[in-house]
Amino acid sequence: MPYMIETFDKPGHHDLRLQSRDVHLAYLDAHAHLLIACGAKLVDDGESATGGLYLLDVESRDEAQNFIEADPFHQAELFERVDICRWRKAYVDGKNLL
Fold first, then answer.
1. Rounded to whole angstroms, what are the CA distances from 56 to 44, 45, 86?
2. Once rounded to an integer, what is the mean pLDDT over residues 61-80?
3. How far apart, in whole angstroms, are the C-alpha atoms of residue 71 and residue 5?
4. Which CATH superfamily is domain 2-96 in?
5. Contact between 63 and 2 (Cβ < 8 Å)
6. Would you say 16 and 35 are in contact if contact means Cβ atoms under 8 Å apart?
7. Most buried residue among 15, 17, 78, 95 by CB atoms closer than 10 A?
């Protein structure tokens, strides 16, 4: 069952995001089988990230929580807030899945 995880970076922590980025991407690569999609939320300049969005295929909220807590961004204390909720696949890649 899919879960959506939305993260919100602490203000002024852009350098920490950049310092942790490579190990974060390696973590995502190692767990790609769980990812429906994920990516950074960007400000209008298209350069600076303010957090992220993960669509994750796991069986429980606990698994989603464990996934994000093991993320190097989380372990580096980049996030000010993390929201987790169940997500319904309605349209994916232009296809109606309802």
1. 26, 27, 9
2. 98
3. 12
4. Dimeric alpha+beta barrel (3.30.70.1060)
5. no
6. no
7. 78
